[in-house]
Amino acid sequence: MEADHRLKSVPLDDLIVVARVVKVRGLRGEVAADLLTDFPERFEGVKELIAITPDESRRSLAIEEHWFHGNRIILKFPGYDSIDAAKELVGYNLAVPASERVELPENQFYEWELAGCRVETVEGNAIGEVRDVMRTGGVEILVVANESGGDFLIPMANEICVEIDVGKKLIRVDPPEGLLEL
Q1: What is the spatial distance between Cα 48 and Cα 130, in angstroms, rounded to a whole number?
Q2: pLDDT 10s per residue in the chain (182 long)?
């Protein structure tokens, strides 16, 4: 299938990856994809996905059929009607435009919104930049890369992360004594 050049102008930052194709499934060209969204029900209303190839070219794929199998989604796209044709899709990320994201309740954020945020103390002292978010089963932990090449692990508790402004890409923290000394 041809890459869709209209999609080349859409910055990757404006796309939300919701699944990653991991293998071919079945004889009709279906693929199995790992779900990368907390909202699998979102697929009910989605008629098309943006496939992002490993070289970051993009193409639009209409969804012919989909169903869930365990923790994965099985997808069938028109034009991919055999195992060999579907093999091309393995390794592709499947995305939707950020404008179609599921709205979260107040004070909840997507990990991609937090990645790259500057982190500073309430006094304005720079700490670093969010590199990752660790899920612990309890309070999420911000992995903040500092200038010395190490990481600070900062719990996203309300009493520590006192301000999160994803629009300004800024998180202000009031760290307890010793947190930034580890």
Answers
A1: 31
A2: 444 444 444 555 678 888 999 999 988 999 999 988 877 887 888 899 999 998 888 999 999 999 999 889 999 999 999 999 999 999 999 998 877 776 776 777 777 788 889 999 999 989 999 988 888 777 888 999 988 888 889 998 889 999 998 889 999 999 888 888 75
- Looking from the CA of 100 toward its CB, the CA atoms found within 13 Å total 17
Give residue 139's identity as a one-letter amino acid code: V
84: number of Cβ within 10 Å: 10
- Whole-prediction pTM: 0.63
- Decide if 29 contacts 85 (C-beta within 8 A): yes
Name the DSSP class of 120: E
Q: Which of the 8 DSSP states describes residue 124?
A: -
Distance in angstroms (rounded) separating the CA atoms of residues 99 and 137: 28
Q: Contact at 8 Å (CB) between 162 and 122?
A: yes
Instruction: Quote the CA–CA distance of 60 and 63 in Å, as a whole number.
Output: 10
Residue 20: strand pairing partners = 34, 93
